[in-house]
User: Fold this.
Amino acid sequence: MSSAAREKTLILMRHAKAEDGAGKADHDRELIGRGRRDATAAGVWLKEQSLVPDLVICSTAVRTRQTWDAACKGGAHAEFVEYRKSVYTGGVAEALETIREDAGETASVLVVGHNPTMAQLTSLLSDGDGSRQAHEALAAGFATSGVAVLRYAGDWADLDWGSCELQRFHVSRG
Assistant:
């Protein structure tokens, strides 16, 4: 198989701005108004960039589900959406394993998750490769509603540290 036929897109998205959670379980924290606006703006950006994932792997947390729902209101969409507790409870190794196991034969996957996992996953997968501008933007911090777009050539089951190139990093504000 040619490398062009194997080229894949991995989009890592941090949930939008959520309430501070005082008196509420972390898993149940909801987006605030700014978060809903920012997540909707992220959906507009994904649509404008023609980034349409075949699969969305979303943390089970309320704020990540609300982030994806708001992004869809902005124009983002995907064929399939899976909710995985491993994206909420696990760190980078568990998130990587979830992608490897769930992505199958898809060409593009979007993960809606949490920090520090999304920032660490982006850095470890790209290991400095790709757009210098995107790496500089990432170095400023993986803010809420941040979106990292990585390219990968290979089978998802073989995805590993240093195997991607960071192409773009964008923080959506609405």
In short: DSSP finds seven helices and six strands in the chain.
